[in-house]
Fold these 3 entries.
Entry 1:
Amino acid sequence: MTATPVQMPLPRARNVLDPDVRQNPYPFYAALRREAPVCYSDPPGMWLICGYDDVVSVAHRHGEFSSVAMKRQQGSGERGVQSVITTDPPVHTRLRGILQREFTARRLARLRPRIEVLADELVSRMLARGRFDFVEQFAIPFPVTVIAEMLGIAPERREAFKWWSDCMVRVVSETSGSAWARAREGVFELVEFFRETIEARRSRPTAAGDLLDRLVEAGREGRLSDKEILSYCTLLLAAGNETTTNLIAGTVVALLDHPGELERLLGDPSLIPAAVEEGLRYCSPVQVIFRRALRDLELRGARIAAGQDLALCLASANRDEAKFADPDRFDLSRTTAGHVGFGYGVHHCLGAHLGRLEAAIALERLLPHLARLRGRLDEIHWSELWFIRGPEHLPLELAS
C-alpha cells in the first residue's frame, strides 16, 4: 500500500511546521478537522490525525499503532534505547511499573510542603523585582527544581538541567539544522552526566530514597538494564519540567487574557483544580505524540501503510468542537473530562499527578497577585517547536 498525500486546506500555511502556524496552530487545526481530519503532510513526512475521536482511537489501539515512532522523534534512531514512551505492552508495562508508585497522588502529597516552600520563595523573589520575565523567574525554575530534588541532583546542576532539558525537546521536535546538532550534543552531555552519577550511586549507595535510588535498585535487582536506567533518567528530566513549565505559563496567559475568568477564580479559589484542567485542555503543553502503523489499514478513508508514522495532534483534539463546545474560549465552568492534555490510554503521562500538583500550588501562590500583573499579551512569542508549546518569555509588571 502506498500513501497518497492529501493537499493541505490552508494555502497560506503550507504545513504544520510553518512559523506562523506554530505561533497560533489552532485555526490551522480547525481547518484540518473540517476538511482533512486525517491527512498526509510532508514535512514532517507523516499522517496528521486531528479529530478528537480519531486521536483517542489511535492512542488506544497500541496493538495496531506502536509507540516505537517516538524513537525517531527522540533523535535516537530506530535502534534507540527503549523507554516508557517508546514501547508498548508488555515492555511498557514493566518499565512503567518501576516508578508508578512514586507518582501516585497519595505518595506525592508528602512532597506538597516542600513544593509550597519552593513556590513561595520563587514568587517572593520574582515580585520583588517589580518587572520580571515570568517564564524565566518562575515557570522554568519551579518544576526544574522539583524534579531535580526528586532525582537527588545537587542544586548547582539545575541550570545545566534546564539546558539539557531544552536540548532534549529540540531533538524531539526537529530533525536537522545547526540548532538541532547542538541540542544533540547537549543530550550526549546529559547522558554522560547521568552515567557518572549512576555509577557513583552504585559505588557509594545512599539512603536518600530518591528516584535515582529507586532506579539503581531496580537495576541491581535485574528489573532494568543499564541503558534503561539512563533512558529513564533523561526522560524524567524532560517530562518532569517541560510540560509543567508550559502548563503554568500558558494558564497564566489564559487567565490574564480572560479577565472575567480570572475574576471568578479570585472570588472562588476552589476553582483552581478546574483552572488546571482547563489549562491542560486549552493550552495543550504537549501538542503532539507519535505512533507507527503496524499493518496496512484505513482511517477515515485514508490508506495508511504499515511502517508509516502518525502524529496524534493532541492540541487539535483538545479544541475539537465535536467534543468541547466553544473550544477556543478558556472557561472555568467547562466539563473537561476526557481532555488529552496528558495523553490517553496506557501511555497516559506517568507524571500527571505531579504536574497537576505543581500547577495547582503555583496558582495558589500566584492568585493573590494575578490581578495586579500587567503585560503585552499580544506580543508573546510562542515556542516554534512542534512537540511542545508555551510562551518563550512572558514579561510582566506588578502594578502598584
Entry 2:
Amino acid sequence: MQVKIGDKAPNIGVGEWVQGLPTNIDKNYGKVILVEVFQVNCPGCFIYGIPESIEVYNKFKREDVIVLGLATAFEDYDKNTLENLKLLLTSGKVIGDTYNTLKQQGQLYDIDKLTYKIPFPVAIDNLKKSETFLNEDKVLDFIYENIPDFDKFPVNDQSTIKQRVLEYLKNKKFSAETFERYSLQGTPSTIIVDKQGILRYKLFGYTASLSRIVQGLLNE
C-alpha cells in the first residue's frame, strides 16, 4: 500500500546502512524525522536537497529532530549503485552527471570531491529486481497507483500515458521500496514525519523551507 499524507509513516526500506548506526522511523517516535531521498547520479540532490538537509541537521541536532539520508535508484541503474554510494561517503567522490555539473559550477575540490560531508546516517533503498513479464494489467495497475483519476483523461491522452508507462516499465530494472511506497516524484525528495509518527510532508525539489517546517512540527 502506498502511504499518503496523514497516514502512519511506514519504515523506510533499507538495503544496507552505509553510514551511521542502523535506525528507522519506528525507533524515533517522539522526534521530528526528516528523510532526504537522493540519487548518487543527481546533480540537483547535491546542489539543493542534501545541503538543505545538512542545514536542518546542524540547526536542530541538539533538539528532538533526526535527519536520515536514503540513496535510491529509479533510473541510471549503472550509476546509482551501492558501490558509488560507498565511494561518495568514504571519499567524497562524485560520479556521472553529478560530477559533470558540479565541476562546471566550480563546486568540487581535488578534481572530483564534494566540498562538504554528509553528517547524518545514510542507507541505500531496498532495491529488488523488477518483473520481466509485462501485460496491460500490470501497466494499468502502475497507472492507477500513480494517477488515480486516469479514467477522466481524454482517450488520446490515456493511450499516450499507457505507451510511456510501458516503455518506462520495460527499462525499469529495479523497484525501489521506499521511493515507490511513498509515491515520490523524483529526487531530491524529502519525507517529513511528525513526533507521533504521522507523515506530514512529501516534498520534491528545493524548498528553502525545511527549517521552518521542522520548527513548526517541533512547536506542536
Entry 3:
Amino acid sequence: MQQRIAIIDLGSNTTRMIVVGYIPQQTYKLIDEVREAVRLAHGIGRDGKLQEIPMNRAIKTMRLFHQMCRGSGVDTIVPVATSAVREATNRAAFLDRVEAEAGLRFRVLTAAEEAYYGYLGAINTLNVRNGSVIDIGGGSTQVTVVRQRAVEASVSRPIGAVRLTDRYVKSDPIANKDCKALEKAIAAQFDDVPWLTGQGGELAGIGGTIRALAEIDQKLRHHPIDRVHGHAMAAERVYELYELFKGLTVKQREGIPGLSKDRADLILAGSAILTDVMRRGKYKRILISGQGLREGIFFEHFMQQHSPLIPDIRAFSVQNLARIYNYEATHSAKVRELAVSMFDQLQPLHGFDATARELLGHAAILHDIGNAVNYYDHHKHGAYLLVNSPMQGFDHREVALLALLVRYHRKGEVSVDTYADVLNPGDDVLVAKMAAMLRLAEFLERRKNQVVQHIHVEIGKNVRMVTQAAGDTAVEVWDANRAAGLFRKAFGCEIEIV
C-alpha cells in the first residue's frame, strides 16, 4: 500500500518541503514540492541570535506547510533544521515557538548529518562512484569525498551564500576590496583541508546556488532539456559566470535568464565558494543534482531496514518509471531480450560499446510507457514522458538518447535535431542503428505472447535473421519485415527475417 511522507528542510536561506508517495523498496513518485525564501540566517550578529523578523517568517511558513500536509493525506512528516538553527544561541527558544505555533517538532541535524544526507540524496540519483559531493547552503558548505559510492572523508564549514553576503558584500556592484575579502574568507575555511587540494575526479553539486547556476547556464545556452538534475557544467563555465556576477548590480543580475529574484543578491557569494572549491580541487566539471538533503532523508525511509544506497540507480530508475506508467512487464522484458541479443550478434556491423547496449536495454523496458497517455502516437508520448521524468543516474545526453530510441521504436524517419546541443558527434548514427534494432524487436513481439523465443543472426553480404519460436510466427515475421526499412537505411544492407 502506498504511503505519503513529507520532508521539511528549514535552511538558512530557503525552506523546502517535498511530498513523496511510495511503496517501500519498490517505487516512489514526487507528489508535491514547495519552497519559500525565509532568510532565517539574515541579520545574525556576533551574539549568534536568530532575528525576530526572519523567525516570524519561518514560523508562518512552517504553519502553512503543516496545514498542507494535513490536507493532502500525508502519513509521516519529517521536519529537520540545518546550520542557521544549529548554530543559533537562541535555537531552543525558537524551536519551542515553532512547536507551539506551527505544531512541528524539528530535529536539528549536526554538520556531519547534514553532509551525510546531502551525499545520500546525490549518490542515489547521480551516476557517481568515485568523486566528491559539494552542498552549498545559506549558512554552511559541505564537501564529501566518495569512493565506491561510500563516504571516505567529509568536511563542513560555516560559510554559505546568506552568511557571506551579509558579512562581505557591502557594495553594489561589489567593490574590488570587498571581493578580495570575500575570497580570502572562503580560502581560509579550506586551507586546513589538505585532502581537498588536487582531489580531482567527478564533482556532484547540490544546493540552491548550484541549481541556480545550472538554470542560468541552460537558459543562456538554450539547453534542450528543461531540468537541472544531470546537467553538467565545465569548470571554465562556472568561473565565467562568477566573473559576470562580480561586474553586475543586484538589479542587473535579476535580469539574467534563469536566475530568480530572491537569489540575485546571494548568487555572487555562492558562486565564489564553488569557484574556490573547484579550483582548489582541480575539478574539471560539476554534475548538478536536483536531489539533496530532503531526498537523502527520504531514501532512509524508502529503503527501511536495508542499506539506504540503491544498488543500481539506473536500472532502478527505469523500473520505477515503468511501474509508474503501468508497463507490461513480460512484453517489455521480451523486447529487451530480443533487442540486446540483436545488438550482441550485430556487433561486427555497429561496433558500439557496453554503455550503448545498456541504454538499448533500458529503452526497451520503457518503449511503451506512452500508452499511459494514448495508444495513438504512444511512441511520441513515451519520449515526452521520459525526457520530463527524473531519470536518476543518467546525464542529459543519455536521457536524450533514451527518449529518441523510444520515439523511433515504432515508426518514423530518425532525426536527432531536437537534442543536437547535448549529443556527441556520431550520435545520429548510434540512434538510427539502435532504434532499428529496437523496432525489429518490438515487431517480433507483435502479439505480446512471446512466441519468438530467440533469434539467430547470420551476417554475410546482407543480414539474415532466423526466429526460433514456440508456435506460429507468421504475424511477427510478416510485420518485422514490413518494419525493416529503418534497418536497411541505418546499416546500409538488406535484411531478411524468416
